[in-house]
Amino acid sequence: MSLQDQKAPDFTLPRDGGETVTLSAIDGPVVLYFYPRDDTPGCTKEAVGFTEAVEDFASAGVTVLGVSRDTVAKHEKFRDKHGLKIALLADEDGSVCEDYGVWVEKKMYGKTSMGIERATFLIGADGTVKREWRKVKVPGHVDEVLEAARAL
User: Which helix (H) or strand (E) element contains residue 54?
Assistant: First the structure.
């Protein structure tokens, strides 16, 4: 399911720190990245990578949002443990993951289960998905997203 060149599904989700975030209320482009779980090796590397580049994204006028099905309390522990500077949104019921097509069947060690596919969406200021990355591999990903964001 590709969302490229389509209107990004809108949402309002709670975030770390107790506020809520509504996608359509954000002024300017957004990097929306979905990740499986707080405090796992790949998810930590990705969140730290986006945090290290948060100033670069900000100077390009881009807001970075991370989404998983973890609770706000887990997000806050994850943020504090790793000094994260990006908003972490809690999609506990999985509806936003469904809307973006990232809640998928996964196979690991011969076992099948449902989970979040690591994916990133670059949403333009007009609210349309300008670029999407599916089945993301973490090394080099943040740089690639930043380059695409700067090109908007």
Answer: helix 54-59
For domain 12-150, is the CATH number 3.40.30.10?
A: yes
The Cα 81–Cα 75 span in angstroms is 10
DSSP 23: G
The domain spans of the chain are 12-150
Residue where the block lists tokens 């107790």: 18
Q: Is the dihedral of CA 13, 17, 19, 22 positive or negative?
A: negative
Is the model's pTM score more than 0.90? Answer: yes
> Which residues of the chain fall short of a pLDDT of 50?
none
Query: Which sequence positions are flagged as catalytic?
Result: 43
Question: Which of these, 135, 117, 144, 113, lies nearest to 50 by C-alpha position?
Answer: 144
Contact 125, 25 (CB under 8 A): no
Q: Which residues pair with 132 in a beta bridge?
A: 121
